[in-house]
Amino acid sequence: MSAYVVIRVPKCGSTSVARMITSSMPNSKVFDISSAELNLAKEENENIPSLERLRLYKNKIKSNWRNHKRLTLDAVWNKTNQSIEDNDIILGHLTIDAIKLVGINKKLVTVLRDPIDRILSDYNYSRTSYNKKGGASKAYRTKIYAAGNYSFEGYISYLKENRPVYGRYISRFVLGPNKVDDPVKFLEQNYFSYGVLERMDLFVDDFHKKSGLSLIQETANKTIARTVTEIPDSARKSITEFCEEDIHLYQSVRKAIEK
To answer: Among 207, 156, 215, which residue's Cα sits nearest to residue 23?
Structure first.
């Protein structure tokens, strides 16, 4: 038995990809499971304020119960393993090492994005989210707080100092906790289909060749209010130094699929 697992890297067009795949398989059950936010916070435990850790934990319990009528992620995966059927779909903000399917062939699917554009999108999205928050919640010194109060360059500095995982954010989702010297080989060996947001046409073609399913391209979840639209050279240089592994991953994959 096989199941599609769509690893959704935030701000990489993953909402669109998820909708495209689920629309192409209307008879498949969809399991929405996300754990990355909580898992990555645990890995950066010393840099995450206690109130923020508590908020993440409470929100995850609520979402587990709302979506699955289970309180813990382990219970969610146990329920999923008991009810999943051939060609069903699991999607969510999951890192590759957090997938807990038993005895099921995992057809992993993901789409990457230029890391520089991803961080810019994350900044604008986080800044918009901050401005929508109430007074009390704005006091938490989180990533969203930094985006709401700092310039784009200040936001990058905050990530460097406090959230080092964002220096290999895409890699952490797609490759796992350890550095991979040959990311294209890793993807070829472990993924059913993959691509880059900037060449979604190639991803659609690849997915069709391997599955026989036709995906209809769409765009979803775009941040309309953008504080920053152009990236200063100084910020681009800073991101390039900070996200070296993600940039290597993206460039390697794009080069491989455009051959």
So the answer is: 215
109: tokens are 């699917």
Nearest to 227 by CA among 147, 173, 110, 113: 147
Q: Which residue has the tokens 């701000």?
A: 11
Name the CA dihedral angle for 76, 82, 88, 94, rounded to a multiple of 10 degrees: 30
3-state secondary structure of 220: coil
Distance from C-alpha of 157 to C-alpha of 164, rounded to nearest angstrom: 10
CA angle 25, 29, 34 (to 5 degrees): 105
Q: Which two tokens stand for residue 127?
A: 């800044």
**Whole-angstrom distance, CA of residue 215 vs CA of residue 202:** 11
CB atoms within 10 A of CB 179: 11
Instruction: Confirm if 176 and 108 have CB atoms less than 8 A apart.
Output: no
- DSSP per-residue codes, 30-82: EEE---HHHHHHHHTGGGS-HHHHHHHHHHHHHHHHHHHS-SSHHHHHHHHHH
Cα(236)–Cα(184) distance, integer angstroms: 24
Q: Give the pLDDT confidence of 169-221 residue by residue, as tens digits.
A: 999 999 999 999 999 999 999 999 999 999 999 999 999 999 999 999 876 55
pTM for this model (two decimals): 0.90
Q: Domains of the chain (ranges plus CATH)?
A: 2-257 (3.40.50)
